[in-house]
Amino acid sequence: MAVKYKLLGLILLICGGIAAQQSSVNAVIRDSSWYFANGDWPNETDSEQERISTHLSHVHAILSNRPGEPYSQRSFLLKALGDYIQAGEFPRYFNHPSERRPCFIDDAGTLCAVGHLIAVSAGRAEAERINKILRFEYLENMKDSALIEWQKQSGFSLKELAMIQPAYDFDERMRVPYFLFQDHETLLYGLKRRKDDRIIIPADFEILRYDPTLPFVFGKRNTGWDVFLPDGRILGIGYQKTGFIRNKQHYRMICSQSELTEAFNARGEVVWQVKDCQFLWSWEHQIVVQDLNQQKRKVLNWNGQQITPWADSLSPLPGNYNQFVAWKCETKNAARPYTVWDTIGNKLLPESYAKIEAISSCFIAQKEEDSALKVFLSNGKELELAGLRRYEKGHHSYGLILHFDSLSGVLNGHTGEWLLEPKYSKVFASSRRYHFSSENGQGQADPAGNIIIPPEYESILSLSHHYILRKNGKMELRDYNGQVILPLAYDSLGILMEDPRYNNLRQLYFSQDGARFQIHNQEGDIIPEHHYQGFDRLNRNSVLLHKDGKKILAQYYSSELVLYPNLPIDYARPLNTWYFAYGLNGKEGVMVCPPAVQHLKEHFGKAIFDTVLEAHYRDAGRFLVRKDASWGLYDKAGDSLLFPCVFDDFYPKDRTMHSGWIYFKKGSIWQGYFYSSPKLQSLMPEGQAKIEALWREENEEIKKGR
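RESULT FIELD:
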């Protein structure tokens, strides 16, 4: 990966003049993400949303490869950034007078990438505060103390956050008739008409929601909400609660005030009113309202008609493909508090239950804590399933794994038919397949219940796209659809290497049959002219092949087996991440085997040490080395000693269970080194004594063999 980025940097240097002529998507890395992905610079025909997505995905990959604590704020925000990229909702509605610029929150309320990270960690209000004063500003120019403090706690450097921040191009095709504006003195929001900059809604609102896809605008001032049509016509003011529901492409605005809940259509007309209840929340095309005492709730449909009776609590239940099909109602003072009503007002279950769960398009109900489980389809039909003890979700939205007294099967929760009849001793879902066992052996079925591997094998190892099967002491290889690639004839089978450029889609396999060792491609064909006796694995795309007592470094790269016969090596063992200690002529050195980068000679440090050990799991590239009975610290990046081999010993010996400090002993003097600093630090007398005592204790335990 490092080589690839260096090459990209050279390309950027050579072609910088070309990129400078275009409006770049980022202030730090410009349009390198597009070049990295497509081999060319973007032009006016390329999709704006695709440019933003490409940039964010590129930066997310870079930041994910940088070291960090696995459960830190940085890792949390990286996950949030990945979710944001996956959602694909980027700012598009905004008005900037000139060039491509960042936009913290657009006119429709869509957050930019950095704004999203702030919202999920510090709250939406903080993101809106920054938007009020620094909406179109580049991150590295934002002089805001609260933002700087958030950056320090985020785990990202300011430059890394600036790398994330896209600059957006205002697309004339996305121009909308109205846009939000902000009064510079009061910092309140209003709405203007774009064609003549006329104020449609005055800037009187602390929060104003305008989405061009909705026929309503609503804003909050003081403690109430005002509702408008986009042309500024007032529908109502001072509502306590507002929301909207959608039925296909039609919308209705729901507003509650005092003792009245009413619904407006897209023309601003009141289509229905309900007294003595207040709007609580909506779900698709229906709403939940509560009585004025806020003790009971019921459901109203699109036309304001009652769907369920009053209940203490309500929750929507999904059906096939997670489509909303019913409501679960709870009556808290009842011995059996739950029942289910469908979305048109029919009671689906004939009586109340102590437990109801919606799973895989079915309802699982139980009258008492230890009573038998009952299964109902989404239309309320009960299935005759005696002795059901346990259930779990299967594949797709309709697969339901059911466990009876001694047997298990898979039900289609949508139709009530069996995908796998309950005649197997064990069934579980794994890797888009059902794994099942019978008295004859193990097998596999696809999500539709089709048997792809008959239940006759002693073991099944599921790989990304293949299966390795064992039967009667022999092994075979099948593809994802159960077709035989290598027959049941081998003592050993497995993945030799994977090509990282193809995301686990291309693999080489090895087979061992007696003394015969062979290498096979994805289709099972033997790769000719490669005769070896075995291998040692280094990582997913690198191995050491054994041939006539020698070790040959090999890679699987760009669907080719690449060999390095002129790199002498006796053995290799892992250190950390992509680093390995390799042996040559009784000495050890450090080599780097990063994925997706071909091994060149410069990836190998000189084999001049007696021993190479990991320094610290976060100190990638630096290693403890022993030479002539003395210890030092080696830096692979410079292929040189950071500290010369002059120390008698070090503490602690266990390189995985320490805080990051290494203490070096020379004579009776101890010095400390922390992984983030390249310097040795002197210890106070009490520190000297403490480390000396710990070192002696550790040596005693080593002698005892603990």
